[in-house]
Amino acid sequence: MSEDTPQLPDRLSVNPNSQYYDEAVFDREVGILFNGKEKTNVEEYCVSEGWIKVAAGKSVDRRGNPLTITLKGDVKPYFKERT
Q1: Are 18 and 29 in contact (CB under 8 A)?
Q2: What is the pLDDT of residues 4-61, one digit of tens each?
Q3: Which residue, 82, 17, 20, 81, is CA-closest to 48?
Q4: Distance from first CA to last CA of the chain, Å, rounded?
Q5: Residue 40 CB contacts under 8 Å (≥ 6 apart), including other chains
């Protein structure tokens, strides 16, 4: 990894209102391997606690945010290669 690439944090959220949102990380596309399979609908993850939050269908809360479910397992975030 080059020095201008930020390290992936232990916990990250795609929601700008979350305390775990980090805009600098999203300068590059982030991928998530969950139990060895790539997930594309991850809203938030935590590597040390071993969970991801994914959208539960098209349901939204009263503020318009997607309802999420928490799945536990092996979480491996990575930066996708630029093409």
Answers
A1: no
A2: 556 899 999 999 999 999 998 988 899 999 999 999 999 999 999 999 999 998 998 8
A3: 20
A4: 16
A5: none
Q: Which two tokens stand for residue 24?
A: 């600098």
Contacts of 74 (CB under 8 A, 6+ apart): 33, 34, 35, 36, 50
Q: What is the C-alpha separation between 62 and 40, in angstroms, rounded?
A: 24
Place of tokens 């349901």: 59
Nearest to 22 by CA among 7, 33, 37: 7
Instruction: Give the pLDDT score at 69.
Output: 96
Q: Per residue in 20-44, is it b (16+ CB within 10 Å) or e — as a string?
A: eeeeebeeeebebebeeeeeeebbb
